[in-house]
Design goal:
With about 775 residues, the protein is mainly α. It contains 24 helices and 14 strands. It holds the Pfam family An_peroxidase.
Length: about 775
């Protein structure tokens, strides 16, 4: 018994020293460079020919006359060995937690949260390597840098120049996992995104790191969540911010439909999937709060926990005595350059090499491929793609109910069964399940038609050609219909996001296609602002028969098979207005997220998004204003250019300094810019992402640089597609639809019969017929 206590005591002290338990020496918050341009000006071209060295002096601009420690291969290996020993000993702590009965219960809001961020086995294994690297970096920072009096940010940059090559983690580097030679003439893209970039095969592939737009702000410079503000005061709690700023109201957008929201979620899921950590020793989910909603005893708090504190006087949770909201930290992954620290390798010199088109850093894992490639339908691994195939006629597997085809059933985590799709999050709520089903059916519809036109084609050819067309349709709808609604037509045209009638020749193999942490974690989360709590079921005459409550149907997707619910939800999506774009979000999202029913409590999406941003080290909103060309705010009143006075008053009550405002909060609080839906900061970040997503995708549908580009006739047909036509073709009995389903039916966008192909064009698949080659 005494030995066990001693072991736990040693482990406890070690974990505290390493920052595992969230306690650390107070180090001044790192002040981020105000723009990428300033960052480049500060850190480009600084020579360091004598690195590494013992106590040497380097003339490197702001690093002038700084002394740095000697860190050789032996020191690096020792740091990794120490970090690995800590991770190995974690099993002792986890066993102690399990013996105390602390576990995450299935079918609870926190249990569903785990399903929504579920880490695959491969992702989990890669994450363990990255955890070891981060702990080794933390060890180096504490043991090798502090005695030289280095600030945490300077030391983090120094550590980031150290390569993992030659260390025990060398084989875990992303490049080592893609040693196979790519076929540059392959007609079809891979499922995981690898080999899209032939020179850098792992770029953009699944289970690699997000990139970054700005240098991260971690509490310790390496990995601890941001929790100290500009004035050295603690940042306000995530739930306190949510309560102070979000007041649910029933203000709806006058012209935009819920399809804008649902397509945003569908696309965000296609290009980003952030898995959470789980128990190192058992692989079980982590619980950060007691089952009654109270905080755990400190000795039972897992090191990967970052629970959200709920104030005693919380207007919703307070009366139910809930004081703790579950939050488990996101899973990290080794960076593509395979270095220590939070930054990319500096190629042997003490500065960061980047360009204006490539983000700076990467840490958290993206479990999806980074390309807009239909991975939400087909999966991001070859294994998942094969599980979803029928292997007959190029079709995807289905299950039939009432003579209609739905996604195959897979898993018992949902009350009435879960659907199996390329992305597990299909089960989150019924509208998302409808969107997935529409595209699942679209694939099979195309495969069946191609089989009629080309009876000699194999199952593999039919499947790959149908998949290729579906991906092209998704890309075209995103850039032709959705982004102009989101960003504004004038802006989209001005920045070159509008698709043209000719081939696109903007492919750039030197740009990194990785999705930015800022977009995945904050900017695309604007979607929660648009969600409605009561979802309309709309009949064929566009009358609302009844509504279903969002909170009632989290992880109950099979409701879409009941009676006329599928078509009613589809028509409702194209008819019902979305909520107004602001920070006032419905209660189904701010206190009932993943609830068992509409009467019970759930989680708060705003709090989770704030906590995730801090977990990922995202700098504050003010820094991104500067990056996007807006003046940096010195006082809260400087936000008046795009944030209403009423909201600024609220911001002032909860945050101590303008720099402390979280990116997700500032971005959502902005008034829309021009004719778009978003304010200038989120518009800027999303533009940067989708511009890069297009130009770094060698297989983008209109790219002239594809190994086998679509023929001019095929390309012209793909450009006929609209989401309205996909709705018409794949509903159960949809007979009418407005041409632009992102906008409500109105003058100029009136309901049209689905048989009116001039009003709602379709893709003529005859362009893919072998016998049509003579006409190409």
């Amino acid at each position: 018994m005494a030995g066990s206590v001693a072991t736990l005591a040693i482990l406890w002290v070690s974990l505290q020293t390493m920052g595992f338990l969230g306690t650390s020496h107070t180090i001044g918050a790192y002040k981020l460079p105000m723009s990428l341009q300033n960052y480049l000006a500060s850190y480009t071209g600084l020579p360091m020919s004598n690195y590494p060295y013992e106590g040497g002096v380097v003339d490197t601009g702001r690093f002038h006359n700084r002394r740095y420690p000697h860190i050789d291969e032996a020191v690096l290996n020792n740091s990794i060995s120490f970090a690995q020993s800590l991770v190995d000993r974690m099993s002792t702590l986890e066993r102690n937690i399990a013996n105390a009965g602390v576990e995450l219960m299935a079918h609870t809001p926190a249990g569903k949260q785990f399903l929504d961020s579920y880490p695959s086995e491969d992702a989990f294994e890669r994450g363990l390597d990255a955890i070891v690297a981060m702990k080794a970096s933390s060890y180096l920072l504490h043991q090798s840098c502090r005695r030289f009096g280095l600030e945490k940010d300077d030391c983090a940059r120094y550590i980031s120049t150290l390569s993992l090559q030659g260390t025990p983690l060398d084989s875990a580097c992303p490049g080592s996992r893609h040693a196979a030679i790519c076929n540059p003439m392959a007609k079809y893209r891979s499922f995981d995104g690898s080999c899209n970039n032939v020179e850098n095969p792992s770029w953009g592939s699944a289970m690699t790191a997000y990139t970054r737009i700005l240098f991260p702000q971690y509490f310790d410079g390496i990995q601890e969540p941001r929790r100290i503000g500009q004035t050295k005061k603690p940042l306000p709690g995530a739930r306190s911010v949510s309560v102070a700023l979000s007041t649910p109201n029933d203000q709806s957008d006058v012209s935009r439909t819920l399809t804008v929201m649902q397509w945003a979620q569908f696309i965000a899921n296609d290009i980003s999937y952030t898995p959470m950590r789980k128990m190192v020793s058992s692989g079980k989910p982590i619980s950060c709060c007691r089952s009654d909603g109270n905080p755990l005893s400190p000795r039972y708090v897992h090191p990967d926990c970052s629970p959200i504190t709920v104030p005693d006087r919380d207007p919703v949770y307070g009366q139910h005595y809930v004081r703790c909201m579950n939050y488990v930290r996101s899973l990290p992954v080794l960076r593509s350059e395979c270095t220590f620290g939070p930054a990319e390798q500096a190629s042997g010199t003490f500065f960061l090499i980047i360009d204006s088109n490539r983000a700076i850093l990467d840490e958290q894992m993206n479990q999806a491929s980074h390309f807009l490639d239909g991975s939400a339908i087909y999966g991001s691994t070859l294994k998942k793609s094969r599980e979803l195939r029928e292997f007959d006629g190029g079709r995807l597997r289905v299950h039939k109910d009432n003579k209609h085809e739905f996604l195959p059933i897979g898993g018992t985590e949902c009350k009435d069964g879960c659907y199996d799709s390329g992305d597990y999050r299909v089960n989150t709520h019924p509208q998302l399940a409808v969107m997935h089903t529409i595209w699942h059916r679209e694939h099979n519809r195309i495969a069946n038609k191609l089989a009629e036109l080309n009876p000699n084609w194999s199952d593999e050819t039919l499947y790959q050609e149908a998949r290729r067309i579906v991906i092209a349709e998704i890309q075209h709808i995103t850039y032709k219909e959705w982004l102009p609604i989101l960003l504004g037509k004038k802006y989209a045209r001005a920045v070159g996001l509008v698709v043209e009638s000719s081939y696109n020749r903007n492919y750039n193999s030197e740009d990194d296609p990785a999705v930015s942490n800022e977009v995945a974690t904050a900017a695309l989360r604007f979607v929660i602002s648009l969600m409605q709590g009561k979802i309309s079921l709309t009949d064929n005459k566009r009358q609302n028969n009844k509504t279903v409550t969002l909170a009632e149907y989290f992880f109950k997707p099979t409701i879409i098979e009941s009676d006329e619910v599928f078509d009613d939800l589809l028509r409702g999506m194209a008819t019902q207005s979305s909520q107004k774009m602001d920070i006032n979000i419905v209660e189904d999202i701010t206190s009932k997220l993943f609830a068992s029913n509409e009467e019970s409590l759930g989680l708060d999406a705003i709090s989770l998004d704030i906590q995730r941003g801090r977990d990922h080290g995202l700098p504050g909103y003010n820094h991104y204003r500067k990056y996007c060309g807006l003046p940096s705010a010195k006082s809260f009143d400087d936000f008046l250019d795009y944030i209403p006075m009423e909201m600024i008053k609220k911001l002032r009550t909860v945050y101590a300094h303008p720099d402390d405002v979280d990116l997700i909060i500032g971005g959502m609080a902005e008034r829309p810019a021009e004719d778009g839906l978003l304010g200038p900061t989120f518009r800027c970040l999303i533009f940067e992402q989708f511009s890069r997503t297009r130009r770094t995708d060698r297989f983008f549908y209109d790219s002239a640089y594809q190994p086998h580009p679509f023929t001019p006739k095929q390309l012209a047909e793909i450009r006929n597609v609209t989401l309205a036509r996909v709705f018409c073709a794949n509903g159960n009995h949809i007979t009418e639809m407005q041409p632009n389903v992102f906008l409500r039916p109105q003058l100029g966008n009136e309901l049209r019969s689905c048989t009116m192909f001039e009003a709602i064009p379709s893709v003529d698949l005859f362009a893919w017929a072998e016998r049509a080659k003579a006409y190409r």
